[in-house]
Design brief:
7-stranded mixed β-sheet; 6 helices; 36% helix; magnesium; cell cycle; alpha/beta; Rossmann fold; 7 strands; globular; septation; GTP-bd; metal-binding
Length: 215
């Protein structure tokens, strides 16, 4: 435990330069019996199947394809645990809202996500990703309300900021916050995997969530 704690602070001390040297997917799980047996803090990532979760992970850890991006939405069907510098896990959960997935399959994914989020003691925060270009979907709103109901720290990340003019950022941000009934105590980050906009802010929010839990 002490070693992993040291790894964590080493990671955060280097955050300004933020060059991650070690990052690997360690397991794809579908049930608690398959979760990693460690005390490392975990940050989950949730969002629609085409919102850019894989690109978000790859940008934060300076990799091109550790988390596989796909032209086929709905491809992630398991809880994918990524070990970062032997210090924490990113947990990529199945994307929601993909119409071509059967209702039965969507229900199964939903139960898998709910079980993980509500029972995993190592979970420190959930990064809820939305597309800045559009109003949050019904599923986006449900996810945010779900996290607030269970009092789980949430970091809202609005992806694809490079796809709209900078002059419209405030307008789109305000629309998203209104739809979500956004809690001003939560963190909201504009993000682009293309320009790296919001990368540093995302790491700061992750660091804050972990330190807050350990305080």
């Amino acid at each position: 435990m002490e070693g992993s704690q040291n790894n964590l602070w080493t990671l955060f001390e280097r955050r300004e330069k933020m060059k991650v040297n070690n990052a690997d997917i360690v397991i794809s799980a579908v049930s608690p019996a398959q979760y990693p047996e460690t005390d490392l803090p975990e940050i989950a990532l949730a969002g629609r199947s085409n919102v850019g979760k894989s690109s978000f992970i790859n940008t934060l850890i300076d990799r091109k394809n550790l988390a596989r991006t796909s032209g086929k939405p709905g491809k992630t069907q398991t809880l994918n645990f990524y070990l970062i510098e032997n210090a924490l896990h990113f947990v990529d959960v199945p994307g929601y809202g993909y119409a071509k997935v059967s209702k039965t399959e969507r229900a199964k994914w939903g139960k898998m996500i709910e079980t993980y989020i509500t029972s995993r003691q190592q979970l420190r925060a959930v990064v809820s990703l939305v597309d800045v270009r559009h109003d949050p979907s019904k599923e986006d709103i449900q996810m945010y309300e779900f996290l607030k109901y269970y009092d789980i720290p949430v970091i809202v990340v609005a992806t694809k900021a490079d796809k709209i003019p900078r002059g419209k950022w405030n307008k789109h941000t305000s629309a998203i916050k209104k739809k979500l009934n956004f809690d001003q105590n939560d963190t909201f980050i504009l993000f682009s995997s293309e320009t790296k906009q919001g990368k540093e802010e995302a790491w700061q929010a992750i660091e804050a969530a972990i330190k807050e839990d350990q305080a």
